[in-house]
Hints:
Elements: H1 9-20, E1 25-28, E2 33-38, H2 42-52, E3 61-63, H3 79-88, E4 93-98, H4 105-108, E5 113-117, H5 122-131, E6 135-136, H6 151-157, E7 164-165, E8 178-181, E9 188-191, H7 197-204, E10 208-209, E11 232-235, H8 237-248, E12 254-258, H9 267-271, E13 275-277, H10 282-297, E14 303-307, H11 316-327
Parallel strand pairs: 1-7, 3-5, 4-8, 9-10, 11-14, 12-13, 12-14
Antiparallel strand pairs: 1-2, 2-6, 3-6, 4-5, 8-9
Helix pairs in contact: 1-5
Amino acid sequence: MSATGGALAPDIAAAVAALRAGDLVAFPTETVYGLGADARNPAALQRVYALKGRPANHPLILHLASIKELPRWVANVPDVAYRLAEIYWPGPLTLVLPRAADVSDVLTGGQTTLAVRVPAHPVAQALLRAFGGGIAAPSANRYGHVSPTAAAHVREEFPHGVAVVLEGGDCQVGLESTIVALDRTPPRLLRPGAVGRAALEAVLGPIAIGADAGSPRVPGSTPQHYAPLTPVVLASGVDIAAACVAARNSSARVAVLARSAAPPECTALESQGLWLRAPTDAVGYSRLLYAALRMLDKLEAERILVERAPEDPAWDAVRDRLERAAAAG
């Protein structure tokens, strides 16, 4: 299915009908594929939690077609929210704001705040405009697993339970949205993403980093998350080479995700398809990370060794996802 043009109409119509019937649909965004439900239908929202195996107090992100819809969902929209939205919406930025009184507790995980964004993907935009309301959509995967960046990933994850899976190609960002809480002073960055700290501070001034005791709960904030079934181990290039030697001298089977070609110690892994070379730039790496982890997860290895990401602000989101994936192992 094309991502633009009239070819979308039958699929969009089917997805809208499913949403209005209280069913779930999967759709592409620029970040990852979302598992969508009518945000005004508590029973449909509960189906999202049940299908994902997601804790009921773990809030969902509301997706809107336009910034113009924000006042219908938010009790008090601060000026800084509009300033950020004018720059980054549609796009990979989620704002945490005080919820309106009629917003469901199911959507917010029982909190007084609401996480909301306007996605940039044309298929997501077509769906939201045709639906004419808000769509709650966490990533379309089982809770804690690797997020999907292609429609095929969604079908693998959920062979049943999703009424419509909209095609939209591979996600261009590949990591979940940046989340910043604007319900407090100073604003607080709760999840790194494509919109980085420097970009936020250019608009907001100094911001706090990470959750504290009073921070709202947000998606992807648990210590263990974004993980394949195969244990992930973060390692240096030297440690990976040593692991290759150990594996060669034993029956151990390891897979590797690295930003460089295999050294001599690891050429056997490369020849067996167990060495996957990733892009060396943060944007390219982010786009392919989840697809790479899913691919390596299918190789029946005992461990996936992932070369540590550089200590550079451009890699903040990648480091965050890899550290949480490795914590699950």
